[in-house]
Write a structure and sequence with these properties.
This protein is an all-alpha fold. The protein contains 19 helices and no strands. The longest helix is centred in the N-terminal third of the chain and has 33 residues.
Length: about 400
């Protein structure tokens, strides 16, 4: 999270206006998201040849190496925007290699169902992200971005050694080899209505509400909070909310199908955006405590959407089928994420912030549930089957 903060702050500071800052930030993060999406189809193919655990720790090695390279490039005073673009490209490639493999590996390490395993992982990631954001903000302001990227490279080394030394005790099957990575993912989408519905909601979430995380520095600038310490604190608050993901997931899942619960989480994110809309209407700079409260709610709920949709997309599948369907889900939603980020980047500064957030909140809280009403009714009526599949998974 420290390198994320440094990337966001450096990208935003490279612009002379809020519009320029938003566009530069959106370009940097869109490149990261695009490279992730383009790598996803080959993750399963590589894992089928060398194994899930080995593919995963190779991707973590690439991530640490990219941070080390970025630290050196900044130290020799290369173009900041060029360094950020190169770093984002490599980080995106590493994430694309491991993202489809994370849910099954989390299941193997924890022994939990896929939605609980990913939610618990979000809790741990949230705690680490909160500490990383605060420490990263302090290091960034005192020692500069080079130290942040170097620290990011070093922090990843223990994770790599852990994966090499401690593979899952219960073992995890390698996925079936995929001869046509892109073709097989398209076939999965064509053959599964539940996957298509999950993908539709997933795309909407990463376009309408998801870019808030990547674009938070320009948003804070627009709201009058330009200090790096405010950006690091806001990220930490979102991360603290992320710690509560398992609790929120259990609460939202109670009596609801996974697709229905994901839609409810999306609606709550819409309410958080509506709160930002109201704050933007204030004549003076909004109080940071109230702003942070919106970020806290967003962090606690947004990451549940993906956990629920992982479950909704893979109900009743074998493990190797799960990985293929998850790769399809992540590929399509991953292609939507940079589009959402670029849209946010071009609209921030061009459209009044209160209007922008109001429209997004209406789409998330009202339009999406209406468009999905038939799918939601069908998912809820099939819930006994879903629960049975989950317990036997």
């Amino acid at each position: 999270m420290a390198t994320f903060l440094a990337t966001a702050v450096l990208a935003a500071n490279s612009g002379d206006s809020v519009g320029d800052a938003a566009r530069n930030t959106s370009i940097v993060f869109a490149i990261r998201l695009f490279s992730t999406s383009l790598t996803l189809p080959y993750s399963i193919q590589l894992a089928s040849r060398i194994g899930l655990v080995r593919t995963f720790w190779l991707s973590r090695t690439l991530k640490s190496s990219s941070a080390f390279i970025a630290a050196i490039a900044l130290a020799v005073e290369m173009s900041v925007l060029g360094v950020l673009i190169g770093f984002s490209l490599l980080v995106g490639l590493s994430k694309g290699l491991r993202q489809p493999l994370s849910p099954p590996l989390l299941q193997a390490y924890s022994g939990l169902p896929i939605d609980e395993a990913t939610a618990t992982n979000q809790m741990v990631r949230g705690a680490a992200a909160a500490v990383g954001a605060l420490v990263g903000g302090l290091v960034l302001s005192r020692m500069g971005p080079e130290a942040v990227f170097l620290g990011g490279a070093l922090v990843g080394i223990p994770v790599i050694f852990f994966l090499i030394a401690r593979p899952p005790s219960q073992g995890v099957d390698s996925p079936d080899p995929i001869e046509r990575p892109w073709g097989n993912l398209v076939d999965s989408l064509r053959s599964s209505n539940q996957l298509r519905t999950a993908v539709w909601l997933g795309i909407t979430s990463v376009i309408v509400v998801g870019p808030l995380i990547n674009m938070l520095v320009p948003v804070l600038h627009e709201l009058g909070h330009r200090d790096t310490s405010h950006a690091s604190l806001f990220i930490a608050v979102v991360a603290v909310g992320e710690i509560l993901t398992p609790l929120v997931l259990r609460r939202l899942r109670k009596g609801r199908a996974a697709l229905v619960a994901a839609t409810r989480a999306m609606q709550i994110c819409g309410i958080a955006l509506l709160a930002l809309c109201l704050l933007a209407l204030l004549p003076n700079t909004p109080d940071f405590f109230v702003l942070g409260l919106s970020g806290f709610v967003f962090g606690a709920v947004y990451f549940c959407v993906a956990s629920f949709l992982y479950r909704s997309a893979t109900i009743g599948l074998r493990q190797n089928q799960e990985e293929e369907y998850l790769a399809a889900y992540l590929l399509v939603t991953g292609l939507g994420a940079p589009i959402g980020t670029l849209l946010w980047g071009h609209l921030l500064g061009a459209v009044p912030l209160e209007v922008f957030f109001f429209v997004l909140s209406v789409v998330a809280a009202l339009v999406v549930p209406v468009l999905l009403r038939h799918a939601l009714q069908r998912a809820q009526s099939d819930m006994p089957t879903e629960s049975g599949n989950q317990s036997s998974h």
